[in-house]
Amino acid sequence: TSGVGRDAATQAIGRGAARLLGDLGFAVIAEFDLPTGRRLDLLGLGRDGELVAVEVKSCAADFKTDLKWPEYREYADRLFFAVDDRFPRELLPEDIGLIVADAFGGAVLRAAPSHPLPAARRKALTLRAARTAAFRLERRAAME
Fold first, then answer.
1. Mean pLDDT of 111-130
2. Residue 44 forms beta bridges with which residues?
3. Cα-based angle 16, 6, 88 (whole degrees, multiple of 5)
């Protein structure tokens, strides 16, 4: 997949995965900056405070060259990969949830194991998510 094609595929998968999370009751923040400086593709915040991380992978090369995703386990109760229906799923670790998505939606094919965050980290991430969402909304309102 070319870089341009990969970008379009990544955007479509991310959009569908975000729609799925929304359908499941999560508030979603795309491109969420972690305290480490890393960036999650999607962070979902559930009604009960559950934090779900989604890492979007558009092709095998994208997965094989990305060595940062294991760090995301420390910042979410559950971690998923989101891929499209052409992705070679046998590459993905069995202990990570699996979402298959396109631009219009997605489905959870494998549930992610739950690894509840420590209370202090959950609070810090929830506050970070709230501030991120508020600043983005403020910027959007200023542009109107």
1. 97
2. 28, 52
3. 75
* CB 102 within 8 Å of CB 16: yes
| Contact present, 38 and 31 (Cβ < 8 Å) | no
Would you state the structure tokens that stand for residue 62, as one six-digit string?
């994208």
User: Which among 86, 83, 88, 112 has a CA at the least distance from the CA of 99?
Assistant: 83
Mean pLDDT of 90-98: 96
Say which residues have a Cβ less than 8 Å from residue 112's Cβ, sequence separation at least 6.
Answer: 52, 78, 79, 80, 96, 97
Residues 6+ apart with CB under 8 A from 3: none
Both tokens assigned to 143:
């542009």
Task: State pTM to two decimals.
Answer: 0.93
